[in-house]
Write a structure and sequence with these properties.
about 230 residues, 11 helices
Amino acid sequence: MSHFSFIAELGILVCIWLAGWGLAFWLIRRGKSYLDNYLLMSLVFGSFSALLVALFRRRFEPLLSGIAVLPFVVLLLAVILTIGVYALCPRYLGRPDTLIARHPEEFYLHMDYRYLVSKSFEVLFQQLIILALTLLLAATGLSMTGVVLTFLGLFGVLHLPVLRVVGKGLGLSYTIAAATLAAAFPVLILRVHDGFVYSYALHWFGYTLAALLGWVGYGGSGAFGRRAVT
């Protein structure tokens, strides 16, 4: 792969990433949420995902041959587990109202089923970016270690703002977890058959775990929740 081709494709990828998130954040700043406006947000991320597929189809096509059933079974299990968490947490755990009020744009904390619709399209957009970037880096001849380190650095930096959401303790744990999962994405994509589906499932379910941690740690019955109440 020539340097010009890499720079050109990387530039396109960065522009789509900035445009997609830029529009999403613009809508959020104007009161459009993943909950009340879940169809609109789904349309935004779905449209940019379609654009990514159209522009990077040549790189994606080899991954679509001989897709197995197992990865979709894993994805289905992630969905079932998430629905179970969403159903049981409001029944047995205190709602982290203080945390939600402090950070209303962290929609995963609400455990609202509408969020799962809009978030699914957002994760699709993110995963297509990750997939394209992984394939681009691999096409340059960069080693797996190099690709993994690149993702560790990128996701570590991009998730640092979460420290403002849940505090340094849990926030740092979440950032480390996000960076670690990010390192797993290129390994799954490049080394596991149908790994891009597993990568999507892992990424999607990660937000369920983040919500669960928020409810356990900051809900009325959680350790941080009790501390906030007293």
